[in-house]
Write a structure and sequence with these properties.
The complex is a heterodimer.
Chain A (H helix, E strand, L loop, with lengths): L10 H21 L3 H22 L5 H33 L3 H4 L6 H30 L10 H11 L1 H10 L3 H17 L12 H6 L4 H12 L9 H24 L5
Helix pairs in contact in A: 1-5, 2-3, 2-5, 3-5, 3-6, 3-7, 3-8, 3-10, 6-10, 6-11, 7-8, 7-11, 10-11
Chain B lengths: L8 E12 L2 E13 L4 E5 L6 H9 L6 E6 L2 E2 L5 H11 E4 L11 H12 L7 H11 L15 H12 L6 E5 L7 H16 L3 E5 L3 H4 L4 E6 L2 E4 L3
Parallel strand pairs in B: 3-8, 3-9, 6-7, 7-8
Antiparallel strand pairs in B: 1-2, 1-4, 4-5, 9-10
Helix pairs in contact in B: 3-4, 3-5, 4-5
Classes of the chains: A mainly alpha, B alpha/beta.
The complex binds adenosine-5'-diphosphate and magnesium ion.
Magnesium ion binds next to helix 1 of chain B.
């Protein structure tokens, strides 16, 4: 068709990648007016939990505090992305916002990932802030591992399919907000994010196995040696499972996300 | 094919049936139509008569159930999603009823955005081109304002500048004046007239018979059929 975008295999991926970077750039420009508000919003939940650690957790061991802090951060990375994508998609659907994007020669993956990446980037700042505050004031420090970066990225991307579909099938923006927030609460309190798995009732132990956050938190705990007697071979498994969730997410978007409806 | 040539639009017995549950709704019933390059066409008809469906066939936003849609030598009815999006990016500028500007990009950024994804306009010329398009629609002084700081008419003019970003030969607008007062709507049509003088082909859906008369040709549609093809 055009010399800029040919059908040579491999170039489709390259042009998708290019679209993704362009869209993310425009998304970031698009977010600058509300950036401060967004950061504040993304920080509220983890900061609240940090307070909780401080007031209630004086008698907790450092290991317990680390355990909760990691759960908290995994929550932030997985849920902020899902919430942002779900609500963004809901808003666009209600306001015919996809009409314009649909006229651009871009893939829906590139667009959704740009929504998500905006949220992930916005989560890194409060995430780092919280780790710093935790170390300074609450004597909870987490050892750094280079594997943390891919882990957090996988964590965020593992939930994007769910967010996109909630946004798409919700009848309006408000329903999308409720549904994503309901999901988020479920993940926060009914899965082994802040509560050790053994302490959960059996049915919740089972449902937690289909939540990527369970594996993300376990992996981080293994990396930080917070998991008592953790089996290092589980780490590999956790990464594999997360990658699978990311693939499922992509497949959901590919086959179920019809943005022109 | 870097520069799209002027194109003739041809619809051949196009039928569109919407399926909702058990019910079938015939939105277009064997519609045939030809629009020549440089024509200024208004599409009129009652609400629900099939105006949007008709022009969505031409832009490829929607697919015909039966029949053929040709724009130049491109068979629109056979193209898949991504081929269509690429074709559209080079050949059609679309103007929406609700403007659809990105709310936190300035006017000039909104106009530059489609150039980034199309790639035909060299990077260094994009800002300059966006500014000259805004000048053309009379908004040079507002280039750095956000859509919320502009009136409805001004926003729609930004949207027209954006539709022109990649210099498509065809402009399609579905009730672009539906949210504007009659004076502003008339300004919009004056702008379309100027674009037709430059050689663009323009299809506009409108409710307003006075505005429609300003087009070269008025197509009237009722119950999914063209009852007057304006020829
Ligand atoms: N996506 C759809 N699903 C089912 N019916 C539709 C859809 N889009 C349009 N229709 C129906 O097709 C008919 C023509 O619609 P449309 O082309 O939007 O009319 P107009 O633009 O003239 O108001 C209407 O009866 C409308 O309800
Ligand atoms: Mg309509």
């Amino acid at each position: 068709m055009s010399p800029e975008r040919s059908h040579i295999p491999g170039s489709r991926f390259r042009s998708s990648l290019r679209d993704f970077f362009l869209l993310t750039w425009w998304q970031l420009l698009n977010a600058r007016a509300t950036a401060l508000l967004g950061l504040l919003l993304f920080s509220v939940f983890p900061l609240g939990l940090l307070m909780f650690l401080f007031f209630l957790g004086r008698d907790m061991s450092e290991r317990t505090r680390q355990y909760i802090l990691i759960g908290n951060l995994v929550y932030a990375f997985a849920m902020n992305g899902m919430l942002a994508v779900g609500q963004e998609v809901g808003w666009h659907k209600e306001n015919a916002g996809f009409d314009f994007y649909a006229t651009l020669p871009i893939s829906k993956h590139a667009l959704l990932l740009s929504f998500l990446t905006r949220a992930v980037l916005a989560t890194f700042i409060p995430g780092i802030l919280i780790m710093l505050l935790a170390r300074l004031f609450f004597q909870v420090s987490l050892p750094f591992s280079p594997l943390l970066l891919p882990l957090l990225v996988l964590t965020a991307y593992s939930m994007v399919g769910a967010g996109a579909l909630i946004g798409l099938y919700a009848p309006d923006t408000r329903a999308a907000v409720y549904a994503t927030q309901f999901m988020a609460l479920l993940v926060a309190y009914f899965s082994p994010l802040m509560v050790p798995k053994e302490h959960l009732p059996a049915p919740l132990q089972w449902t937690s196995m289909i939540l990527p956050t369970t594996y993300a938190a376990e992996a981080w705990r293994l990396l930080s040696r917070v998991e008592i007697g953790g089996d290092p071979s589980r780490l590999m498994l956790d990464f594999v499972v997360l990658v699978e969730f990311v693939f499922i997410s992509f497949a959901l978007i590919e086959y179920k996300f019809d943005w022109r409806k | 094919m870097a520069i799209p040539q002027q194109v003739t639009i041809v619809l051949n017995e196009v039928t569109k049936v919407y399926q909702s549950g058990e019910d079938e709704l015939v939105a277009l019933d064997k519609v045939s139509l030809r629009v020549d390059p440089g024509e200024f066409v208004a599409v009129v008809g009652k609400s629900g008569s099939g105006k949007s469906t008709l022009i969505n066939m031409i832009t490829g936003i929607d697919h015909p159930t039966e029949g053929e849609v040709w724009v130049g030598d491109t068979p629109i009815h056979t193209l898949g999603e991504s081929a269509l999006a690429r074709w559209r990016s080079h050949n059609v500028g679309i103007v929406f009823q609700f403007f659809q500007l990105l709310p936190t990009l300035t006017a000039v950024e909104n106009v530059m955005l489609p150039m980034d994804f199309n790639g035909r306009v060299p990077r260094r010329q994009r800002f300059g081109r966006a500014m000259s398009l805004l000048t053309q629609v009379g908004l040079a002084d507002h280039a750095h304002k956000l859509p919320s700081e502009l009136s409805g008419g001004q926003q729609q003019r930004v949207a027209i500048a954006r539709a022109l970003a990649n210099d498509p030969p065809l402009i399609v607008a579905d009730e672009p004046t539906g949210n504007l007062d009659s004076h502003t709507a008339a300004d919009m049509f004056a702008l379309f007239e100027a674009l037709v003088d430059e050689g663009k082909t323009i299809l506009v859906v409108t409710h307003d018979p006075d505005l429609a008369r300003r087009a070269h040709r008025v197509i009237t549609i009722a119950d999914g059929r063209i009852v007057d093809d304006g020829r």
